[in-house]
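URGENT: need a sanity check before tomorrow's submission.

F., can you look over the 6-phospho-beta-glucosidase record below? I want to be sure the sequence and structure line up before it goes out.
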Amino acid sequence: MTSTFKFPEGFLWGGATAANQLEGASNEGGKGLNTPDVLPGGKVRLKVLSDPGFDFELDTEKYTYPNHEAIDFYHRYKEDIALFAEMGFKTFRMSIAWSRIFPNGNELTPNEEGLAFYDRVFDELLKYNIEPVVTISHYELPIHLVKEYGGWRSRELVTFFERYVTVLFNRYKDKVKYWMTFNEINSSLHMPILGLGFAIQNEEDRYQPTFQAYHHQFVASARAVQLCHEIIPGAQIGCMLVYLPTYSVDSNPENVLFALQEEQIFNYFCGDVQVRGHYPAFIKRYFKEHNIELDIQDGDLELIKENTVDYVALSYYMSRTEKKDKKPEEVGKGNILGGIKNSFLKASDWGWEIDPTGLRISLNQLYDRYEKPLFVVENGLGAYDKVEEDGAINDDYRIDYLREHIKAMGEAVQDGVELMGYTPWGCIDLVSASTGEMSKRYGFIYVDKHDDGSGTLERSKKKSFDWFKNVIATNGEEL
Ligand code: BG6
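Structure tokens as predicted:
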């Protein structure tokens, strides 16, 4: 299909991943144990992430741990990057595992083997003119920082993070021009284990400790922006939000107000601090009503104000529909944020509602609010794939999903949105973050690895591989 719009010159087409979901080699190269290493595989993971009291201990008798081997990118990165290059990737989004660089998180000197691994990966990407886009912290924290410091509850993590990013910027200053600080920073409002490195123990934890931890991350992020600009002139560093445009179920003003308030706290709170450089007005009342009093040190607010991000990266998978007094049976089954089922939308096999127009709405809302370049660094369809007898994988459902979302981005560009690029999530099959499953596949490249841990790890191309290759080759004109 030929589209009617053009994406900007130099548009960054590519794919996105995260260290813990693809590298494997969890105890090689001097790496320390980290938070995803202790998360069990299978649907029990979602329960662990949502229920109070998780203790971050390994229990190999009871659970499997798919992130330990993942898809073994650590040893197979050359083969994988060659496939990305064949697809014509202009960019590759990946993350660095903090625990490879500082195994405990708080050492004074970094682990050379970890640094050298990422050197090899960046060199391989650059060999094919693929621009690395690096997430500094993607749902991963050395376990020592969790156990000894309580994760981001502790102000000391700001110092450790500063040490970590200083090492990264100095080491990779000639290789990496695009950075982002915390993956989906706003998601910790629902699942602090992944982003903040502590488990909710009781309802009170949702407020004071969570927002204090957020303040620490805002300070750390601002400091990273400052250091990035100092150490790598010309580099760009962004924030990264999971964005769900929030619709009211109807025009009842009570429901509209509720949807707005949910949107403010979830979609905008973090971005407002990182992009505008100050706490938004609406949060004052929220803090008061939830007895939150932040410990803000001298200089924090100035640092945040003076070191705002260069661009806004976002993941977009679904929209959210809200109603003030919803009944449990109205909640959509796959809605991680608890919105109600939207009768206008179909859902994925995991119940994630599919809404391409929601992406156009999101891009318009974010650009109106922040007037900063936007970068869609995650989007995609998690689906069960079937390997035919001849080895073919006909993932037309994935092509349909991506086509509609690319069309929505094209429309947003015509609406006036400044868009830097598009890196669909899990361009190669990898371990799901929320369920620890391999069978929830997003890739253009199939990996022979299964939920029970079996498989050869062999890579093969799905039908979407050639389709996306052509999308990139025509800069989005042929969809
Ligand atoms: C985003 C995360 O929330 O969504 C990724 O940044 C994650 O790490 C992706 O993998 C898809 O979610 P899931 O649970 O299907 O893997």
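My own read: The mean pLDDT is 96. The first strand starts at residue 12 and ends at 16. If you see anything odd, call me.
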